Amino acid sequence: MRRPQRRAMAKQSRAKDGDEIRLLETWIDAGKPLPGTKPPPPSEDSSAANARGRARVVVAKAADGEYSDYGASTRFDELPLSTKTKDALRQQGYKEMSEIQRAALPHALCGRDVLGAAKTGSGKTLAFVIPVIEKLYREKWSQEDGVGCIILSPTNDLAGQIWEVVRKVGKHHNFSGGAIVKRTGIEQEKERINSLNILVCTPGRLVQHFDETPNFDCSNLQILVLDEADQILDHNFKSQVDIIISQIPKVRQTLLFSATQTKSVKDLARVSLKNPEYISVHEQAITATPDNLEQCAMIVPLEQKLNMLWSFIKRHLKSKILVFLSSVKQVKFVYEIFKKLRPGIPLKCMHGRMKYEVQQAIVAEFSESTSVLFSTDIFARGLDIGNVDWVVQVDCPESVALYIHRVGRTARYNKKGKSLIFLCPEEERMLEKLKATESKIPINVRKPKVEQLEQISQNVAAVLVKFPNLQQLGKRAFVTYLKSVYLQGDKEVFDLSRFSAESFAAYASSLGLPVTPKIRFVSHKKNVSKKDMEDIGVKQMKHKAEVIEIKPQVKRDMLADDGPDDDILYPKKPNPDANIYGGLDEILSPKVPGADTHMEAEKIEELVARPLKKKKLKINMHRPVGTRVKYDDEGNAIDPLASLAEEVGPEDVIHKDKILQRYAEMLREMQEDDKEDKAQHKKSLQEKKFEKKMKLKRRRQEETDAVSDDSGSESDRNTNTSSKGKKKYFNNSNDDEGGHAAKGGDLLAQQEALALKLLGKMHH
Ligand SMILES: Nc1ncnc2c1ncn2[C@@H]1O[C@H](COP(=O)(O)OP(=O)(O)OP(=O)(O)O)[C@@H](O)[C@H]1O
């Protein structure tokens, strides 16, 4: 009995949907905005109360055959959307639309191709997810219809995140779908992929299905979305995107979104957009980054970056910090080292070599707790983590666009956030690019206060000796960092030849490495001339804080928070509550009691321009006694202080006093060892000399004996005797020698006795 009842209900529901779809189609068609138009600025009568009333009016009018011009809507419930979608949006707390949603949704809902650009965290995901769901709904799409929409994302994590949004907004609909990511394994995916209506995946995974999955069919595809479109259309994904485009129908709707949109006609031609709507809602904005984001840059020499990062973290123990590094090896190394040094805040790391599930777990943990997450650029685009306080870029981003995406992990959707970037003096050109008017990035250049910088390289060295596998990791981190710089395309910014051999050595030393690893791809023959190096130094010295034009309000806040003498790391008036979003200084916490800071009071400029000591890692042949260099199994020199870590417990690793005390003891031991070594060496030299002398004597004696024993022919004997005797001992003008020879046996015995006596004395 139940079945017919259920069937009847389903029929009723389908009929209801059918009515709604007809209504929506008429409404969409009648009220669609003119191509190329933007919504008017929201007015007073679009306030929440009025809007609610108007939405009712709109629906009522729709029933009478009159439809609103939804292009001017400010709220989701004013749009021609299905009740199911509206209910889901309301349940998720989405009421007012963001700028990009207001501008893009009306065009996308009426089936137009859209090329949308808006700042990071401004709500682009809903701007494409809603049209996807609505399109399939209006097409009465069901499981049997197969793949109706493909959303491409550059990373698995982002695909997972987008799918979550689709799932939430489409929860009252009956579509199937999923994020096609590594998690399930390709074989399981092959079985279900044809029954999925909405696929969210990376280009690579989709191509794999085109290649390997029998009967994988996208011939019914209605809508293609490229999130982070500029990245998906760049050369890294080129061949994959070309394959995808060749496998899907030409007649479809295409939506492209990114915070940094591609303007290349060539790129756009590849995805064959039809009369696309170019929607760049923040084109006229003063900044390309979120208004609530405060951005700082610091010029930090390569070898000081780790110290700077450590010092920063130690002062922000109550913040959620996302740290970008350029390679997996670096992420692993810094994470492992800092974990051993225990800064007093939970640490996490994330990179592309991790399993998808692990990445997801880390993202979930990071979302919920105050911690530091070290990450590669896998996290740079799209990921939406709430309440990130700081984004710190330890390594220079490859482009201004990547900078914008990285900093965009904070200050999302009207929230406040801060970012800090360390740039090497050699990468100064990037600072110029960021500050260029067309970049529209209001970045403040700050001077690091050297006297407040904690020097941790000795502690890092100590950790490395205690954990030899970290030394390997450190070496690899060093090499991959330089490799990443070497491989960067923008040679104006990334030019290894600007770095001196000394700076490489100092960098290796800062990573705790006793020797500078070999870098095959770098030749210092091509190094800049000494004069050029000096010029760079002079330029660094001239670095002055500058502010480019930004929104008056943001500017006022910044100025109010930071006096000219203030340092981003060290506020004048420490505020105990570092987590309150306020001005710049409020975010910065006071120095943690007990944190050790060993740094001479040098001037800021000295940090930047201090000439590096050439002898830093060279073995000094004229070293003072007791500073003998030790070697590891591979023949690499070990820093004497680093070698101490073998003898201290893990809890002692970072106590400098203990290390220094042990170091002094070790010096004393070494001095004593050296004294012993010297005596031993002298003794062995004397022994060798004596032995040599003895050998010589013995040989002479044997030769003398041989001559006297000679029993050859008479004539021979005479000849030989005379000649040999002349040559050797007899008839020799040197009487002494003749005398020696005569007394050879006695002398030998005497010398042996003397030698024994001498040796005996030495032993006492
Ligand atoms: N209309 C809205 N009302 C309230 N919150 C919203 C609205 N639209 C989006 N959000 C929220 O804003 C945050 C950022 O949205 P989203 O991830 O779509 O940004 P984005 O523009 O895609 O950023 P990115 O360029 O970094 O990918 C999300 O947490 C989302 O839930």
From TrEMBL:
Residues 74-102 form the DEAD-box RNA helicase Q domain. Gene3D superfamilies: P-loop containing nucleotide triphosphate hydrolases. It is an enzyme of class 3 (hydrolase). Residues 1-52, 671-744 are annotated as: Disordered. A motif (Q motif) lies at residues 74-102. InterPro entries: DEAD/DEAH_box_helicase_dom, Helicase_ATP-bd, Helicase_C-like, P-loop_NTPase, RNA_helicase_DEAD_Q_motif, SPB4-like_CTE. The keyword Hydrolase applies. Residues 704-713 have a biased composition (Acidic residues). Its EC number is 3.6.4.13. GO terms for biological process: rRNA processing. Keywords: ATP-binding, Helicase, Hydrolase, Nucleotide-binding, RNA-binding. Residues 301-454 form the Helicase C-terminal domain. One of its GO terms (molecular function) is hydrolase activity. Transmembrane segments: none annotated. Residues 14-23, 671-690 have a biased composition (Basic and acidic residues). PANTHER family: RNA HELICASE (PTHR24031). The Q motif is unique to and characteristic of the DEAD box family of RNA helicases and controls ATP binding and hydrolysis. This is ATP-dependent RNA helicase. It comes from Hordeum vulgare subsp. vulgare (Domesticated barley). The gene is LOC123425892.
